[in-house]
Write a structure and sequence with these properties.
This protein is an all-beta fold and about 850 residues long. The chain is built from no helices and 76 strands. The chain folds into 8 domains: about 10-300, no CATH class; about 305-385, Sandwich (Immunoglobulin-like), CATH 2.60.40.10; about 385-470, Immunoglobulins (Immunoglobulin-like, Sandwich), CATH 2.60.40; about 475-545, Immunoglobulin-like, CATH 2.60.40.10; about 550-620, Sandwich (Immunoglobulin-like); about 625-700, Immunoglobulins (Immunoglobulin-like); about 710-780, Immunoglobulin-like (Sandwich), CATH 2.60.40.10; about 785-870, Immunoglobulin-like (Sandwich), CATH 2.60.40.
Amino acid sequence: MLRIFILLIFLLPCLGANASHIVGGEMIYEYVGAGSTAGTKKYRITLRLFRDQHCVPPCAGMPPNVFIGIFNNDDNRQYPSDGRYFDILKTSEVEVPVGNTPPCVVNPPVLEYHIAEYIFTVDLPENNNGYTAVYQTCCRVNGLTNVFNIPSQGDGTGSTYACSIPGKNQLPSGQNNSSPKFFIGVSPICHGKPFQLDFRADEPDGTDELVYSFCEAYNGGATRSATNVNPAPPPYGSVPYINGFNSSSPMGPTVIIDPKTGLISGVAPEEGDYVICVCISEYRQGKLIGVHRKDFIVNVEDCDFAGAQLRPSYSYCKSLSASFLNENNSPLNKTYFWDFGDGTSSTNISATHTYASAGTYNVKLVINRGEPCGDSATTKVNVYPFFNPNMEIQGQCLNRPTTFLDKTTTTYGTVNAWEWDFGDLNTTNDVSTQQNPTYTFTQTGPKNIRLIASNSNGCTDTTYKTVDIYDKPLIGLKFRDTLICNGDQLQLVASGTGNFSWTSTANISNANTATPTVKPAVTASFVVTLDDDGCVNTDSVQVRVVDFVSLRGMADTTICATDRVQLSAVTDGLRFQWSPVDNISNPSALSPWAAPSVSTTYQLTAFIGRCSATDNVVVNVVPYPVANAGPDTVICFNSFAQLQGSIIGKTFNWSPQVLLTDATTLRPVARPMRSTPFVLTAFDDQGCPKPGRDTVLVTVLPEVVAYAGGDTAVVVGQKVQLKATGGVDYSWNPATALSNPKIPDPVALYDGSLESIRYQVVVRDATGCTDTAYVQVRIFQTDPRIFVPSAFTPNGDNINDVFRPIAVGMSRIEFFRVFNRWGELVFSTNENGKGWDGRIDGQYQASGTYVWVVKGVDYTGKDFSAKGTVTLIR
């Protein structure tokens, strides 16, 4: 199988003017044995530094020596004395092994790294909180993608490498510890490609539990150059993350670390250098004893490769269905072959498969099968459905142990691992890996509890629950103040976690339970005490004893028919019954809604135990006033409608009133210009305050627009065809000289007995609506000709303002042209009746004489022409 492309470039500070060749570091401690003097322990301290052998010149070799400081965590003083450090020579330097590079890589990076170790032993006196061993230096590489470089600190942000050696408070009595040791090795990473970085560590003690996580990388403190300095005591500050990255997501949200295996995996981000720090939390018997760190840079390069990439394992714990996807998405991947491990296969790019039964299956993916750049990957798939994490929490008292019980169920295998987070924001020690741990909270309030449970078949799932921590146990009371009838008994009801006890001057049965019974003769208070393992709270209930029930019903009322009313009463009763129950929303409520159809007397009975009282409420039902606005109607435009309203009631009004001739009558005349609804509202004085309403719609038909054509002139013996439009029926009056007065386009022929005639045409549309238009015909007893006036006065008084030709007996005008005294054309038209207004290009012309010429064709087809002059008078 092709190896995963991962470039691990461990970041370490600069040496000399350019120290970016140092790319990572780790501080390790090992327990050797008892010290040379009583009360001391001997430890071997190892600093690992990593160097890029292909750094850009000038760059120095490995440092020949380093300054390592040790600080007592009890008082933060330097050991063995203030200001004294350990000057350690380089012990060894070897080449870092590089993983195999696949044969089909585009732009493969060149990887060559050395690792140096600086080792010494030291006797440390036993103390409570242990020691911190630390090395500090300046200058990470420039141009980091996720960390800001500080120019004032040499070439970039510095580095601090440290380890914490546990003391008596961390280690059980008589026990010792050696820190984990990270594996070493490098291989390339291509941006946008899936990758896996194996950052497991050796656990030399053999039985401790290691939990891996991303954490903040430390800066170099006050260091300003690569020159060795005496390190500063803890605590140490974080490097400044930028561009949306942070210590828990140093390569973005697509890259994660497995807390159990230390495997970093995901899809590589854009090209660049990324500072990463991995922390190992070391637990012994469920208790955190130390945190081990490694700070490094991941270099992401622009490369690509064909390959098969699957996660190390898959667990499907909800159903028998499983889905798979090649994590290496590359155009170099041409073919796919999936073997699901149960005798079935698929050639899809992504695969979904449902297994017949639960079990563990070996799934194999083959890319480019039989090709030179082929690759394969195998993985284990655990298919064990019906795994459900759950928890139970007991005890919620401040400063007392709260117990967390694992209630996880599994159909296959056994539940064998637990990771609890108790949600205490004031500490990082609020965790446990025990099955049923306890934890003591020191602050009240809600705590978000998380349980990550796993089983022996590899299933892992998470559940959450919120617990409210209080300084006193919570007591829930069904009531705090109640009534009973003299002679009755009552059961008190409380809830909570712990032991209950009740006290009172009155007699109590079962006083040491949550639900005692009491029968006081007079009003009494009952005090309840809840003891939750020494966490105590008290509360009380008052029981008032009465001899009768106080009841006063609401006043009688009136409602409109079909309406409803809310019944009510003033009473100290505890239980209620209304009758009759018909049309009542809840007969057992004190204030139900009633919707009687007729006037009804309702009786209310109120109870306190055996005591009761009754009262009546009368609801009078009055019908709504009735309004009838009449039938809808349709009218012609600019006509009217006679409304036909009627009411059952006292008074009325119409709306809108502005369109009615008399809104005070039930039969007003409406004159709307467009379709309008008219609302008639009726009122009464019989007790129903609401009006009755009805609406009549008066629809106004579209306006009929009659047109009889333009006025015209003819000569005796010339036929003229009139043309009316706007409807479907037409009637001309008078019918003189018309071929047919009932058509839209009759022909008129005059004999010379008339000089002029004016026709009226009545136009009717399909709905029967009408309109009227007129046309004037002048009859000349001359030959066909074109009349042209000799003068005009364009002064804007609408009298003789336009110089135009008047054609008589002509079928058309060929042209009518006007010229000024220089022979320039100032106006031209071929339309009869169109003329010149005395302007040229919008400019008024001066008074004077102008020449005109006209040509036309008469109704017999003969040409006619004339010319002359016209005088423009201003």
